[in-house]
Amino acid sequence: MDKKVTKIGVLTSGGDSPGMNAAIRAVVRTGIYYDLEVYGIKRGYSGMVDGEIKKMESKSVANIIQRGGTILKTSRCQEFFEKEGREKAYGHLKDHGIDGLVIIGGDGSFRGAQIFSNEYDIPCVGLPGTIDKDIAGTDFTIGFDTAVNTAVEAIDKIRDTMDAHDRLFVIEVMGRDSGYIALHSGISTGAENILIPEKRTDIEAVINALAEKERRQKLVNLIVVAEGDGFGGADEVARIIKERMPSQDVRVCVLGHIQRGGAPSCFDRVIASRMGYAAVECLIEGRHNIFVGILNNRMHFIPLNEAVKKKQKISDEWMKIVKILST
Ligand code: F6P
Question: Is 205 helix (H, G, I), strand (E, B) or coil?
Answer without folding.
Answer: helix
